[in-house]
């Protein structure tokens, strides 16, 4: 008795290639407070980015009405730190769903 397996299509969670996106085109879903910017965690992340760069790219979703804009889903601290450093672009993963 042979069993056949039917391939079930799997939807990718991210676009296949990461994108270098202008930071001004990334819209955060929340703001970073002054107290968070003074926290040990924020300082540790900033030091890590200064030393080795960003290891885990932020995750964005394309804006439904403007293809040049992106909603920041994950990585608010990383994006804020990079913005404060004066960088103008950032490599991001692009989610296929904004959930």
Task: Walk me through this protein's architecture.
The chain has 99 residues and is of the alpha/beta class. The protein contains three helices and five strands. It has a five-stranded mixed beta sheet with strand order 1-5-3-4-2. A hairpin with a 7-residue loop joins strand 3 and strand 4. Helix 2 crosses helix 3. The radius of gyration is 17 Å and the shape is elongated. The model has no long low-confidence stretch (mean pLDDT 90).
Strand and helix layout:
Layout: E1 19-22, E2 26-28, H1 34-37, H2 40-52, E3 59-62, E4 70-74, H3 76-85, E5 89-95
Parallel strand pairs: 2-4, 3-5
Antiparallel strand pairs: 1-5, 3-4
Helix pairs in contact: 2-3
Quick structural summary:
By secondary structure, the protein is an alpha/beta fold. Helices cover 27% and strands 23% of the residues. The chain has a five-stranded mixed β-sheet.
């Amino acid at each position: 008795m042979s069993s056949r397996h039917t391939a079930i299509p799997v939807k990718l969670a991210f676009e296949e290639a990461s994108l270098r996106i202008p930071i001004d085109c990334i819209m955060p879903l929340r703001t970073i407070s002054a107290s968070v910017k003074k926290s040990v965690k924020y300082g540790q992340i900033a030091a890590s980015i200064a030393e080795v760069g960003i290891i885990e790219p932020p995750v964005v979703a394309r804006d439904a009405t403007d293809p040049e804009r992106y909603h920041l889903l994950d990585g608010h601290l990383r994006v804020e730190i990079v913005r404060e450093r004066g960088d103008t672009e950032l490599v991001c993963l692009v989610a296929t769903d904004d959930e």
